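Write out structure tokens for N-acetyltransferase.
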Amino acid sequence: MIRKLHEKDRITVLEFLNEDPSINIFIIGDIETYGFNNEMQELWGQFSDDGQMEGVLLRYRESFIPYYNNPNIDNTDFVNIMLNYKEYKVISGKSSIISKFQSMFPDYKISKTYFCELNNIDELNADPLKNIVKIAKESDAKRICDLLNTIDEFNSIINDPERVKTKLINKAGRSYYIENDKGEMVSIAQTTAENTSSAMIVGVATLKEYRKHGYVSECMAKLCTDILKEGKTICLFYDNPKAGKIYHRLGFKTIDNWTMLKKSRVN
């Protein structure tokens, strides 16, 4: 059985998702931040005949994330929900789960990444900072997007100042950055899907002319230090080997794989 989830389901859903908290960081974070009555997100639950929760599907804006505690469970109902959503959409999640959806979305591009986590500040390998790492405010939203829009790797990602501003206001994420002598933002590391127990690193970037100076490592080191001091686990995923070296050097360990299915936008 499948049905829409509501506020009365909060405890049951979070207990289910926290069986695998790192993999479910996006769903947990969005529930804690936006709840069940926000027009930009919807949640469905799949239940066994005896009423036990078996799966959760999140729609956050145009993104869908399915999760099952058993990848062999029938995913037909979740597939139909996503197929009935006629707008542009992105489907992502744990690779062993998303592999069961790929055949139903044959014209979607497949991107596979490594999923990593860092649990303890004692595991963080951070050198002393040589530069001032600043924490972004709501008023920095446009500057953040302007920086990301100059980076080739972020061309296919929606960099909307209003979304960044909303994230910062709701404390669903934070952004740490370094400026040059002119006060221009040149390197950044960010989080999203922050919740009471974890945070996801995203949007890590440095302007081309400022690379190989260790700026992004310093942003990451400061960001990770602050989050770990709060007792949270930090997660991230990557596909760039150079980025992977930075993350593993900092202390991150690969625990799984993450897959994204994305259809090209029609202009």
